[in-house]
Amino acid sequence: MPTPPPTGPLVTRDTLAKQLSALGVRPGETLLAHTSLSSLGWVNGGPVAVVQALLDALGPDGTLVVPTQTGDLSDPALWRDPPVPGEWWPRIRATMPAYDPRTTPSRGVGVIPETVRTWPGAVRSAHPQTSFAAVGPGAARILAGHAPDCRLGESSPLARLERLHARVLMLGTGYATCTSFHLAEYRIPSPRVRVGRPAAGGGWEEVTEVSITSDRFDELGHDFERDRPVVVRGTVGAALARLFPVADAVAYAERWLAVHRPREEEIPPPGRPGDGRRP
């Protein structure tokens, strides 16, 4: 059976750049982008054209930041989607390659962040599971010092983006992907978990971390957009796009999560699944 022709719309680099500018993306600003290529329509040039358009809208003085997470560098005992046999766990831990910001591919965040990660001049942060990549003059300053025991908290690029008055662009994605909300989890009582991963020097290591989860982030985002006039909505390609300040999202999430999704501040007992789902 022949493959049906694409339904469109036809999207190009120049139309994307114009629509991003019309949405409110400003030259010279810092932008944390969450993206879905498939939501945009038929993009001539695919993810490369999207990255080019984002950089066009930001101009030479702007900085583009994307999440380049590697959740598969985690304890196989916690993998649920799919699980692996228990007898494999020791061998997986012993042979899993350690994180290398130059070569470890991102996983579960889409093809556009992976394109940014490999872009000429791109910089990537050091956290082995929740890294970010960036292109632009502010990249190195934003991504430096991403602490190994701080996935998305005060010693992560999210806190620096907040201080730099960066904005979030959600391009065809829902609020469940909004990493800025996770920064709020570090500022309210939250459970702690033991996080396992391959160590940079070889072997296996564990660190105690804040337990992060995107549970109910869609509800949080709905209320944020309803209550705060800072969220700009528009269309880019065929996608619904949203643009808003990181700082406003974090401040709203701190209050909302404390009321609507309170969590006990304790270290879960060993063996509890936690958030270690294999992407």
Can you offer a commentary on this structure?
- The protein is built from nine helices and eleven strands.
- It has helices spanning 13-23, 46-58, 89-95, 111-117, 139-143, 157-163, 180-185, 217-227, 246-260, and strands at 10-11, 30-35, 42-43, 63-67, 123-124, 132-135, 167-171, 192-198, 204-210, 232-236, 239-245.
- The strands form three sheets. Strands 5-6-4-2-7-11-10 form a seven-stranded mixed sheet, with helices on both faces. A two-stranded parallel ribbon has the order 1-3.
Helix count, DSSP H or I runs of 4 or more residues:
9
Radius of gyration: 19 Å
Q: Compute the average pLDDT.
A: 93
Give the SSE order as H and E letters: EHEEHEHHEEHHEHEEHEEH
Strand adjacency order, main sheet: 5-6-4-2-7-11-10
Structural class: alpha/beta
Question: What is the first-to-last residue Cα distance?
Answer: 32 Å
Percent helix, as a range, is 25-40%
Strand-residue proportion: 15-25%
Tell me the number of strands.
11
How would you sum up this structure in a few lines?
By secondary structure, the chain is an alpha/beta fold.
